[in-house]
Write a structure and sequence with these properties.
Bound molecules: flavin mononucleotide
Shape: globular
Number of helices: 5
Strand content: 15-25%
Oligomer: single chain
Strand order of the largest sheet: 2-1-3-4-5
Structural class: alpha/beta
Number of strands: 5
Distance between the termini: 8 Å
Largest sheet: 5 strands, parallel
Radius of gyration: 14 Å
Length: 144
């Protein structure tokens, strides 16, 4: 099972979620590659069974340009994309909270609800990451 974690993070919150997911998947014996959107060369996404795509949300619910470019570079909709996001309810409340992650999940017709984390996942939200990941992995093992 090959897994790609691709994410964009400016101030580290989304990166923390990505690292947490990587730790968990690696401990389950999965082969995990990580891709920092906007920094690394875009990988051949078709080489992966599952893609975890992470983004923060920008001005008024916007998806960051780097993530849009990544989506265009990938150029097709892989079958199994699980989306995670970091956001802040101070910027527009529940309506705009992690809107970019929501939009990506819809775009990729993801079978999983996007994970939405308020700022950093460390502390009380770690269990949210774990629960969400458990749900995704349950489906992964059923499909395998
Ligand atoms: C100018 C600006 C606009 C933002 N707009 C939103 C928003 O509309 N919705 C949201 O959920 N978070 C919004 N945020 C919060 C960021 O998405 C949040 O801080 C996120 O954790 C940053 O992720 P990063 O640390 O991976 O860069 C905004 C932050 C900034 C600085």
């Amino acid at each position: 099972m090959k897994v790609l974690i691709a994410y964009l993070s400016y101030s580290g919150n989304t990166e923390e979620v990505a690292e947490y997911i990587e730790e968990k998947l690696t401990s389950e014996g999965m082969q995990v590659d990580t891709h920092e959107i906007g920094l690394d060369l875009v990988p051949d996404v078709s080489a992966y069974d599952y893609i975890f795509l992470g983004t923060f949300t920008w001005e008024k619910g916007a998806t960051p340009d780097e993530v849009k470019d990544f989506v265009l570079d990938v150029g097709y909709k892989p079958e199994h994309v699980a989306v995670f996001g970091s956001g802040d309810t101070q910027f527009g409340g529940d309506d705009l909270f992690c809107k970019a992650a929501e939009k990506l999940a819809v775009f990729y017709e993801s079978q999983w609800e996007p994970l939405k984390i308020e700022q950093s996942p460390r502390g009380s939200q770690e269990s949210m990451v774990e629960d969400w990941l458990e749900g995704v992995m349950r489906d992964v093992y059923v499909t395998a």
